[in-house]
From TrEMBL, chain A:
<dbReference type="InterPro" id="IPR012340">
    <property type="entry name" value="NA-bd_OB-fold"/>
</dbReference>
<dbReference type="Pfam" id="PF01796">
    <property type="entry name" value="OB_ChsH2_C"/>
</dbReference>
<feature type="domain" description="ChsH2 C-terminal OB-fold">
    <location>
        <begin position="54"/>
        <end position="116"/>
    </location>
</feature>
<dbReference type="Pfam" id="PF12172">
    <property type="entry name" value="zf-ChsH2"/>
</dbReference>
<dbReference type="InterPro" id="IPR052513">
    <property type="entry name" value="Thioester_dehydratase-like"/>
</dbReference>
<dbReference type="InterPro" id="IPR022002">
    <property type="entry name" value="ChsH2_Znr"/>
</dbReference>
<dbReference type="InterPro" id="IPR002878">
    <property type="entry name" value="ChsH2_C"/>
</dbReference>
<feature type="domain" description="ChsH2 rubredoxin-like zinc ribbon">
    <location>
        <begin position="16"/>
        <end position="50"/>
    </location>
</feature>
<protein>
    <submittedName>
        <fullName>Zn-ribbon domain-containing OB-fold protein</fullName>
    </submittedName>
</protein>
Automatic annotation (TrEMBL), chain B:
<dbReference type="InterPro" id="IPR002155">
    <property type="entry name" value="Thiolase"/>
</dbReference>
<protein>
    <submittedName>
        <fullName>Acetyl-CoA acetyltransferase</fullName>
    </submittedName>
</protein>
<dbReference type="InterPro" id="IPR055140">
    <property type="entry name" value="Thiolase_C_2"/>
</dbReference>
<feature type="domain" description="Thiolase C-terminal">
    <location>
        <begin position="237"/>
        <end position="379"/>
    </location>
</feature>
<dbReference type="InterPro" id="IPR016039">
    <property type="entry name" value="Thiolase-like"/>
</dbReference>
<dbReference type="Pfam" id="PF22691">
    <property type="entry name" value="Thiolase_C_1"/>
</dbReference>
Amino acid sequence: MSAEVPEPDEVTGPWWEATRRRILLVQSCGACGHTQHPPRALCTGCGSDRHLDWVEASGAAVVDACTVVERAMPGFAPPYVVARVRLAEGVLLLSNVVADDPYLLDTGDRLRLDWRPLPDGRALPVFVPSER
Amino acid sequence: MSTGVAIVGAAESDLGVTGRSILGLQAQAVSRAVEDAGLTLADVDGLATTGVSRFSTTQVADYLGLRPSWTDSTFAGGSAFEMYVARAAQAIEAGQCSTVVISYASNQRSARSRSLAGVVETHTPEAQFETPYGPLYPISYYAMAAQQYLHRYGGSREALAEVAVAAREWALLNPAAFRHGAGPLTAADVLAAPMVSTPLTTADCCLVTDGGGAVVLTSLDRARDLPKPPVRVLGYGECTTNTSMTAVDDLTVTGAVESGRAAFARAGLVPADVDVAEVYDSFTVTVVLTLEALGFCGRGEALDWIAGGRIRPGGDFPLDTSGGGLSYCHPGQYGVLLLVEAVRQLRGECGARQVPGAEVALAHGTGGILSTHATVLLGVDR
C-alpha cells in the first residue's frame, strides 16, 4: 500500500540507503545542534551547509496529529492512518500508523518504529502503537 | 496610514458548471470587472493572475491583447489574489502602472480536473517523504489540524460544523451561490455526510466548481472620478510558512497571525473595526484557525465564539457573506472571489445578504496546506 517512491537525490541518498538496513536517520547540525527532517542541503537552524551529519533515531515516537483516510486513492486501501509523528529526537515525520483500530489513535499516543519494504530494497518507516 | 490605491471594479465570471474554457471564463471576468469600473481594456496596464498555464499572466495578457508594464504571476494557491492586491498597490504607488486587473478562472468541475491526491512534483521532498503515505492533498493536512485542535481544546465536530451551517445560510440569500436552492444545512447533516479524512466529511470541505472573478485597481485620485464609489485598500500583510506537512510545529497556529498583524498595523485598525469578513473557507477548520490567528478571538475560543448565530445572517460578525467556498463557489483558488464579495458589501450591492452600513471589510486568503496567508483590509472612501 504505497505510491511509487521517487529515486533519492544527492542530499537524501544516505537517508534512503540506511532504510535498506532498517535504520532511520535524522539530520543533525554539528554547528548549532538543530535536528531536521526531511534532509536538506543546509541547516534551517543556523544556515550552515558544512556541518550537517546524521544521527540514528531510537525509533521511539508519539502521535502529534492523525487522520483516518476513508476515500480511496490509487494504490491505497482505506481506512488507513496518516499521522504527523514526533520522534524522540524532536523532528516530525509524516507516516502511517498501523493500528488494530485506527479510530482509537490520538495525539500523544506512544509509537514504535516499523518498516514497510519497497520493491527496490529500500523501506518506508511506518509506526505501530507501543505496548502499553 | 492606508494606501493611495482603490478597487474600482469587481465581477464574477459564470460560476458553477459552465462548460466553458479557462480563458473564456477569464475573459468574462476581466471584461465584466473593467466595465464595472467604467473603464475599457485599453486602460489596463497591469495584470496579475495565476492558474492558467506555466506563463499564466503572459498567457492572459496575450489572450486579451494587452502589453502590460507590470505583471505578477505569484503562485501561492488560494491566497495569491490578496497578495496581488499588495503588489498592485505598491506598483501603482510607485508609478510602474496605473490600472491593474487581478483575475482568475477555473473550469475544474466541467473539466473534471481535480484529484484527491493533488498535484505531486516528483523532484520535491514531499514526493519522497510524504506522498508514499497516501495523504489526501490538501484535505488530510487540514484534517490533522482539525484533529489536533479538537484534541487540544476539547471542541466537538458539531461545533466545527457551524462554519458550514452558517455558510449555507448566507448562500440561501445569494442567487449566484451553487447551493442557493439547496435548502438549509444542519450540523447533523454535516456530521452524517460521507467521511473523507477524519474528522472532516464532504460537508466540511469546500465545493468543487467552475468559476472566476476579477477586480480592478487604480489610484484613489483617479478612482474618485469613476462612476462607482471607490473601495480603498487600507492595509495588507502576508506570511508564507510551508509546503511540507511537517514543517509547521503547531498545526493550530497559522501564518495568519503575521499576515493579520501586518495588515491591521498598516491600516491603523484593530479586529473590532471590521464590519464584514471574507475568510477563506477551504474547510470548516480553516475558518476556525484563521479567526483565532487574526485576533477576532483568543486561541482555543473560536468554536464557542462562532456559536449562537454570530456568523450567520443577522449575527454581529457577518462572515463569508457570499456563502463562501463551502456553499457559494470554489474554483480551486477562491481568493479573488473573497475580494469581489468584500467590494460589493462595501458598495452596498449585496441585496438580501447586504450587511447594513458596512464600512470596513477584511479579505483573508489561505493557500495550499495552510501554506500561504494573505490579509487585505478594505474600506469605504470617507
